Amino acid sequence: MATVLEPLPPPPLSAAAPRLPMPFPSPPHRLANSRCWSRGHSISCKPQTTKDFAVPRRNAMALIFSSYILSRVDLHDIAFAQQSVVFREYIDTFDGYSFKYPQNWIQVRGAGADIFFRDPFVLDENLSVELSSPSSSSYKSVEDLGSPQEAGEKVLRQYLTEFMSTRLGVRRESNILSTSSRVADDGRMYYQVEVNIKSYANNNELAVMPEDRVVRLEWDRRYLSVLGVENRQLYELRLQTPENVFAEEESDLRRVMDSFRVNKVAG
């Protein structure tokens, strides 16, 4: 008769051997001046691999040099370089003109101009193109407007007419900052006009006592116009920007001005 061996029951907890905490493995340590590493009491050696960490002397020198250059560059210049403006070109082959504008500006339709772009963040900064009616104008050259100064006076009068307000207590101050002419690479002459217009208004225009009518500045803007003639029409590129923004973006705005061209339209 076979004997069945039953498994022994587990020993009581009190008889169990105490568990020793497992030591954390120590990180490998490279022995000085060798290709061997030690971990605890064991030592292992293997060929050294430097593919991922090797830096050629030429690259190392370039890295050191670039680090020195970056340490000499002002942080403001780095931030400015990162925010450099990218331009796009708008070409109207039907009406005959083209210009460049900042890439992040958006086109606004129904603004009354032939084309209208606006900065999405600075709402008072925009550009537009106006052109005279082909049926009621017969310009041969921008010099038909007179001298650049005379053209500037006409441009300023046009701005003041458009900004005329019927509100009580509104006062406008304006002056021509500069007028000039230039011949572009297309051989055509263009006039450039810069004006400043400030708008003032009373905080309480219906007040009886003068001391209760405090005048405050509503807005202070710079307007830059480029005038050109082609197809017997007068073309005007208009740029508007707050005066306190102009100093920061002057180079970009002048690049837009310099890019304006009028083109012959096939009849």
Automatic annotation (TrEMBL):
GO cellular component terms, semicolon-separated: extrinsic component of membrane; photosystem II oxygen evolving complex
Protein's GO biological process: photosynthesis
The organism's place on the tree of life at top rank: Eukaryota
Any GO molecular function: calcium ion binding
InterPro entries linked to this entry: Mog1/PsbP_a/b/a-sand, PsbP_C
SUPFAM superfamilies according to UniProt: Mog1p/PsbP-like (SSF55724)
Occurrences of domain PsbP C-terminal (ranges): 87-262
Pfam family, one: PsbP
Protein name per UniProt: PsbP C-terminal domain-containing protein
Organism from which the protein derives: Camellia sinensis var. sinensis
